[in-house]
């Protein structure tokens, strides 16, 4: 770190580093220099630091790595609260006709709403899997990336696509999909225009055909080849429901994981959302290949999809992060509450009270997320030399003060208020409010765009 870098010093704070040893400090310090963590440890910060622009007394707070979201569909922010009593396939067919009418103005507002909700709750790295690109809808990818950049969060855009419509045995209507060639060309263009491979990148792009039931086998195969040629990651939905499993057996003569393997979609550069219906050999295949999982407990519950076998995945060595999933199937859109939901829902599964503990839940939402996004050397834990993406959770208020253990307080307790979040060393949230966005204006614009979309969909 250059000696001239501005420093932020945080002291008197409980720290859960989420490093490999789960190192914690009851009262410690963090020194941020520029966009990196310079030092972290017990007690006070070193004396004689120069260029200290800010000293923060962290009394009554827990510092953790910033939360990392690994699966989302931002545009759904303006189609929340619809088809509320449906399973996945019925929910999708109810919503596709509306989704197919989105445009750039709508996706920008929806991205702002999605990002605001997550950032306020301690998310420092967001991702958006966007796969609906109606013809003539404008620069949708650009609008989403602009919203993330303005909010100040680190971001991965998973450039999605669909080319298997009803006429080819798929689920989406014919007018909601792209052609194979069009999807591949637009994806390559988005990677070349926006993907930053550097250590402290704020924007990355992944190749992300939507799902086996909305994408041709050829797009899966060529998408994988494209990503590997460009050196970017691969993302899709996998093994979400029993209906999807049945679809794969009928159409491909094999289950989802075997289908993914046959199309080049298992590997340490791949992560998949959901992975609810996995047998022992599927989990072993993910572990053997280093394929990651975005676990989305609230969405899985909302759509009655089932409970992913997260304890078995972790025991096998599968990288697992958390995702809120699109907010048409998880209307809250918050990630910090997913720590608690992941823990509780997995305890309803086979492993019962041994399924997950508070520290494992925190790890899923931080280091696990960094792993599946391919950024574990840069973010996901608080360690000297890593990027300064961190959150100070207020735990001395009514919701948490009577819980002695800070990690138990933020995971088992109510959603803890965020006093400060830093992304790349820069404050993004202070005292629960966003610093680079107007929440009231976003509330208004998202309502207006939701109404505009509903109107256009009703007319068509
Ligand atoms: Zn999804």
UniProtKB/TrEMBL annotation:
Its EC number is 3.5.4.32. The lineage of its organism: Bacteria, Bacillati, Actinomycetota, Actinomycetes, Kitasatosporales. It comes from the Bacteria. This is 8-oxoguanine deaminase. The keyword Signal does not apply. Keywords: Hydrolase. It comes from Streptomyces anatolicus. GO terms for molecular function: 8-oxoguanine deaminase activity. It is an enzyme of class 3 (hydrolase). Pfam families: Amidohydro_1.
């Amino acid at each position: 770190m250059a000696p001239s870098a501005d420093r932020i010093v945080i002291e008197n704070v409980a720290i859960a580093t989420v490093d490999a040893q789960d190192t914690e400090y009851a009262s410690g310090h963090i020194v941020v220099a520029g966009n990196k963590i310079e030092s972290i440890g017990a007690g006070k910060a070193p004396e004689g630091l120069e260029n200290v622009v800010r000293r923060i007394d962290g009394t009554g707070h827990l510092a953790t790595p910033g939360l990392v979201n690994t699966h989302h569909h931002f545009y759904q922010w303006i189609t929340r609260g619809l088809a509320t009593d449906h399973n996945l396939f019925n929910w999708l067919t109810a919503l596709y006709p509306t989704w197919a009418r989105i445009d750039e103005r709508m996706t920008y507002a929806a991205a702002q709403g999605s990002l605001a909700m997550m950032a306020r709750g301690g998310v420092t790295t967001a991702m958006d899997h966007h796969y609906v690109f109606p013809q003539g809808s404008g620069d949708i990818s650009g609008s989403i990336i602009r919203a993330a950049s303005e909010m100040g969060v680190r971001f991965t855009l998973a450039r999605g696509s669909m080319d298997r419509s009803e006429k080819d045995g798929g689920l989406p209507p014919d007018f909601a999909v792209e052609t194979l060639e069009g999807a591949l060309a637009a994806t390559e263009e988005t990677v070349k225009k926006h993907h930053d491979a550097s250590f402290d990148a704020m924007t990355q792009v992944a190749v992300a055909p939507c799902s086996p039931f909305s994408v041709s086998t050829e797009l899966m195969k060529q998408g994988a080849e494209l990503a590997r040629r460009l050196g970017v990651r691969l993302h899709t939905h996998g093994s979400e429901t029993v209906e999807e499993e049945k679809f794969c057996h009928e159409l491909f003569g094999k289950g989802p994981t075997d289908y993914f393997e046959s199309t080049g979609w298992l590997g340490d550069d791949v992560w998949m959302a959901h992975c609810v219906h996995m047998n022992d050999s599927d989990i072993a295949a993910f572990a053997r290949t280093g394929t990651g999982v975005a676990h989305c407990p609230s969405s899985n519950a909302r759509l009655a999809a089932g409970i992913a076998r997260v304890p078995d995945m972790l025991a096998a060595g599968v990288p697992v992060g958390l995702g809120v999933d699109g907010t048409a199937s998880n209307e809250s859109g918050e990630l910090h509450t997913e720590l608690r939901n992941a823990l509780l829902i997995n305890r309803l599964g086979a492993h019962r009270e041994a399924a997950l503990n508070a520290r494992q839940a925190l790890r899923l939402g931080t280091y696990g997320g960094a792993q599946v996004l391919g950024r574990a050397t840069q973010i996901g834990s608080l360690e000297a030399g890593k990027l300064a993406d961190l959150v100070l959770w207020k735990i001395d208020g009514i919701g948490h003060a009577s819980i002695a253990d800070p990690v138990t307080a933020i995971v088992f307790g109510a959603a803890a208020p965020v006093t400060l979040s830093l992304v790349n060393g820069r404050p993004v949230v202070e005292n629960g409010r966003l610093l680079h966005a107007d929440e009231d204006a976003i509330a208004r614009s998202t309502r207006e765009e939701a109404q505009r979309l509903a109107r256009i969909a009703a007319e068509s």
